[in-house]
Amino acid sequence: MIFRSPYVKTPRIPEMRLLIGNSFRTIIWAIAIIVISTLAAIVVMWRAPALKLAARDALVRTRGASSPPDEVVIVAIDEASLKRFGRFPWPRSLMAQALNKLSDARPKVIALNVLYTDPTNEADDAALAEAIKRAGNVVVAAQLDKAQQGDARWTRPLPAIENAAAATGHGNVPTDSDGVARFLTLRKTDNEANPLWAIAVEVIRVGDGLRPDDARDVPDAVMIGSRAIPVEAEAETDAISTGDAGSSPQTYRASQMAIDYIGPAGSFADRTTSIADLIDGRAGPEKFNGKYVLIGLTAAAMGDRVVSPFAGRNDELTPGVEVLANAITTILRSSFYGETSDWVSALWAAIIAAVAVGAVILAQGKRESIKQIAALLGIAALTLGFSYLAFARWKVEPPLVSALVSLVFAAPLSLLLRSLMVSASLDERIAEMTRESARLSPFAIDNKVVAAKRAWWPRGASRKARALGALQERLLARTQFVDRALQSVEDGLLIADAAGRIAFANPRAASILGLGQRSLLGSNLFDRLSEIEYGADSPAADRAGAPLRLLHDRVTIEREIVVGTAEPRYYTLRMAAVSDDSGGLGVPLGVVAILSDVTKQRELQRMQNDVMRLVTHEMKTPLTAIKGMSEVMMKFDPGAQKRREMNAAINEATERMTRMIDDYLDLTRLESGARESRMAWRKVESLIEQNLLLLDPVAARRGVTLTRKFAPDLPPIFADADLLTRALTNLVANAIKYSPVDTEVVISAWAGEDNLFIVVADHGYGIPPEHLASIFEKFFRVPRVEDAETPGTGLGLALVREIAELHGGRVTVDSEVGAGSIFTLRLPLNRKPI
Ligand code: ADP
After folding, report:
1. Closest residue (by CA) to atom 16 of ligand 1?
2. Residue 769, preceding peptide bond in cis (omega within 30° of 0)
3. pTM surpassing 0.70?
């Protein structure tokens, strides 16, 4: 089974933390940006009014031209008429002719946008005055000339002409600093408080058939009858003192009206008739009937031209009469634009700045910069679109300049704020890491890493780099420390990833697994573990089960494993899943395995168990016998014969116990290494022979013959004579004990290449195969009827095995029930055992 490594998520600090983490400071900074941008917008709005005008012109041009109204016609003193009648000024009778032709057509009103200030030939002047009078609806032009020191004087038409006219209007067209004529001053006055309405106003008034006082000021507007021309309430006033002592100075509001041009110069071309055509009778009266007829100069040579908002760099200038036509059209169509107050402009600027800051802060995540730029461009586009809509649809002059200025300030500032926020959050993370690293550090904290305090201004890049460098050093030191510590652990330590690949193994683990530290890395932990436990043929089920239980069921595995057969060592293997949280229930990242050597504890435990067994089982039987017989002797008088028998039995039981304790203590001493071995070179034959001589009588008692079969020239052996004698005695005594009477026990000895073999073969009862493995264990006795009475401790063969191993040899057995047993003691030659 393949255990796939689960996708390990690195804990991500949520993006919004950037915001929330510094929310207070961020809000303060954001407000600061909004205020700065708004103030900038206000300053620009006030200090650079030209920008506002340019923005307005741009909006006008974007909106485009519209068609001229039917009611307005122009009678142009154009190039063609100059050609026809010669250079201007013409004889006034010529204009009188034209006026007469016009009045015959019964126009609504005639505006004579030509100055007739100086007298010429009397007859001509009279003719013109007569024609004006005859028409009855002619508005004539005056002009306010400003001399130095604010001295303003009217240049008015000849009194005869002015008296004949229906009204006199001023023909001044003010231009802004950039030379563009955008506004019309509705009323002007000279220094003597003689006000005149603009021609456009008088034309409308006369056209509507209203009296002179029907054109009047009201708050916020100039009224012409029922037509209202909105003006700015807080417009400047021309304060004029009448000069009379005691009379309060009269004030006149300089009401201005924005001219809503229908298009660039020449927009009224369709409605224009050359005066030459009129005079020569080429223009029919239907052209002028009921119309607003405006007579003026259009010939380029004549000057009197202004720049309209539509005029591009190379565009034609607009003649004054056409400006008048535009002004009249504006009033007729009531085409006025609502102004936005400075307060609204400032508020709008603040809103735009706030939206920009908000958008930049919120545009986070992937492709952050692109998102931010897109957001800002979007805001700019929306502002422009909205402004256009406001202007073209709702006839409101939008605060475009303040909005754009605000955006121009807010955009880079909010981008800066954003990078400062990121920088500040970096500071915080560095600070956090610094704190963490200090907590983790096993050493005294050095002062190298300065934890960043919460600051209003993030730290510089070089400072960050320094702090990160110091942090890196500290973490590196920490990592090295942990690594060394893990390497030095006395237990075997193995760490594997979730797929079971070993990622770390300390030297102890490598030596337990019998492999190099490097070759362990990357190999499968579970394979390695089952190899040392079972060898190559490890059960597959075990390999698959462990990872599943560890990583899926989150069970901690703890079991004992035995490594090696000759000198087995015991280890406690503990395995647990490494989890990505401290609770241990998170995503499993891997497995950690610890191998603790418990061989010593095992031995100790076994010894304790042996003692327990000795006391609880082996000594109980003889003690019970002794107790029973001594009680009988105490309570009854069994007679001399019986007492002797009982005494003998007690003596035998005591002896058996003594022997058992002796044997046990010997064995324990040998096992624990407490007994000093007395090794020396011995002759094998004599060693065995001495032994057999002692046993011969015992064998004889059972009618058993001990036959010696020693190979000639046996080499000497380096051995502990006492121990070896003890082992031999046990083997031969057993052979005698567990054989029927009148049999033979053969003791043979020969030397191989490296080993000396001493073999004790009998024709005894033999040992059933199922017990063969157990006979060398302590206290083990083969349950058998034949020797049920034979005394024994079950420690003899254990002692033999211990002695053989102490000499670097082994003892083995070959046996067949009913046929006999062969015990072979193999001892290494030419080798000094421990
Ligand atoms: P014991 O004190 O009982 O002899 P040992 O450790 O010497 O203890 O032997 C253990 C058991 O092995 C004996 O109880 C006996 O049943 C069996 N055994 C030992 N040697 C022989 C042998 N030569 N033939 C048959 N059985 C034997």
Report:
1. 782
2. no
3. no
